[in-house]
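Dear U.,

Please find below the material for section 3 of the report. The protein was modelled together with thiamine diphosphate; I have listed the sequence and SMILES used, followed by the predicted complex structure.
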Amino acid sequence: MGDLLRIIGNGKDVPDHPVPDGLGDKDLIELYRWLVLLRSFDERAVALQRQGRIGTYALYWGEEATQAGSLYALEETDWIFPSYRQNSIGILRGVPPSVILAWWRGYGGNTGFYDTRHFRTGPICVPIGTHIPHAVGTSWAAKLRGERTASLAWFGEGATSEGDFHEAMNFASVFKTATIFFCTNNQWAISTPVSQQMATKTVAEKALAYAMPAVRVDGFDPLACWKATKDAADRGRAGGGPTLIEAFCYRIGAHGTADDPRLYRDESEAEKWKSHEPLGSMASFLERLGVLDASGAEKIRHEAKQTIIDAVTEMETTPTPGLEVIFDNVYAKNPPWMFAEGLEELRSVGQRELVKPLNAPDTQTEEEGA
Amino acid sequence: MTGSTMVEALNLALHQAMDADDRVIVLGEDVAKTGGVFRVTQGLLDRFGKDRIIDTPLAEAGIVGSAIGMAIYGLLPVVEIQFDAFVYPGFEQIVVHAARYAWRTQGQVPASIVIRIPFGGGVRAPELHSDSPEALFCHVPGLKVVCPTTPRDARDMLLAAIEDPDPVVFMEPKRIYRAGRQEVPEELPFEFGNSNGEASALLSTARTAREGSDLAILTYGSTVPLSVEAADHLAADRGIETKVVDLRSLFPLDVDAIVSAAQECGRVLVVHEAPRSGGLGAEVSSLVHERAMLDLEAPVLRVTGFDVPFPQFANEDDYIPSVDRILQGAYRVLDF
Ligand SMILES: Cc1ncc(C[n+]2csc(CCOP(=O)(O)OP(=O)(O)O)c2C)c(N)n1
């Protein structure tokens, strides 16, 4: 991993590097707050799934730096496109966390979906790699309109095997769009290790084929993720074209709550990577800098927890959407005639109760979900 | 518990086909080491090794396309698509190549592949894990599309699909993957690689899931057990005897079974989970009207999913035809 951009050291043999230009003390604290908020959401969601209060959930424990670090480098006007792995990223742009939790609870309508244009945040994308061209489209449109606006898509190393990834890379480089391809290489696509996903040693070298600059960063280091994204966004907005960022890390958790990694990997390896997780190292780094002490960090963690607890209450006090939700907004205008008939048919038999509780063992044990 | 679930029956079929013919190989995402997310391919790696059961990179066009290449070479690939909606990146390969190779080579080199697709809702999964895309494939000339509903059929039909020289889209109703058990004999349903019409019969005929002569419910997949349940209610509540036909073969449809059920009962209801417009129900209904119109006492009605994206799962039971909706549809046909 010698070639990875890294800023935060370990307080022992790996030295700290200077905080990149553009980040003040306030930013560092705010970035820590973002990391903590994502972590609180994720841990809570896993607990809710275990209790059957939401469905299958795709956790991201340990990958918070790749999300918060890169997002913090963007302007509010830049567009972002998450996959299921960055499912809660919208909360850092004002999407109520209860909405994301409701999505995982299987709620549709305005209870479970948010306004992509308002938040400049794509919907949670489930089909692998398919959202990557959208980040090209938004940055391309901005360019056509003479706006200096960048777009970023997050995806895993597995997604780089799909055609959509390559088509998006090619378009971005041909049309020199301000697109940031942010690949979180956590070395696992469900049970498939990166060594069986690709013959190249890195994801970054795929950029060569598209005459695109690429950078490899330590995906556990929020400041490295920030720095790489900041440079890419600035360059892109100035007309310099797209960048591929490979954030190298490790998928410390399971693929999703229904996945059992013991079937395909040695979990002691995951255990080893666990100490790299970004929240602890960021907190120690801030303490070494004298920017945030232990009690300050504790206060941030406490507030984040409370925010998520409130969101859970909000989600659980929101009624399950009525049956009409399945017809709502399928078309933006003029729903087709059969919707009224369908609604009438459903109303005449009455809304179904969920027959089985969420995550009944016979339906969920072997779902990979997402 | 005795007998096998559908998952176990499919697993048995794969073991038996791979045993019988070393040209049979399996490829897909997470199929080898974990045995697939639904465990249909469990145990194959230990038994047959990594050259015959292959974990591929994450790319459905690559999986289907290279399976076609292997078939051109002379192998018999069985492809697993992880979930219904993830077949779409492989759709082009299926439509423009798998479906056309026999025609393009004038019968010399059919694309002898099987594409297994766990499909449908009811498992409380997030978006795009619950689609029913079978009608898309039925609309592509050159493909066979089948859907077993019982463990026994699952085993027998998968063996038949692998043996069949034409490309078969093999739809597996995941909601009933483990819903029931049935005895599946070890003994093969036909001599694999040397069948005498039994294999093609398995891929082109319907099955009677319940006898009756007052009403025919024509259905397939996970709505078969729901239709049988509705039929039991009709018998208990109104003394109506309902024939439930499990179509099994979605393309080509078993026209004889469909027409004779309509002639026998005079009243027909079609049930499926997929969206209604352009779905299998329209095709079945047309066949009945074209060939048995004078035997009908009522128009053929449909109880189906709606013409909407499969909903978020808290509302999936509103979307999936329920026993109540099937009963309501049945009463409308009966009381016409
Ligand atoms: C087109 C498509 N094929 C298959 C899947 C099933 N699936 C969900 S996640 C996943 C692995 C993704 O790995 P990677 O892209 O590395 O991202 P990570 O999950 O590690 O974040 C697969 C195969 C899917 N969601 N979409």
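For the text of the report, you could mention the following: The longest helix of chain B spans residues 223-238.

Regards,
Y.
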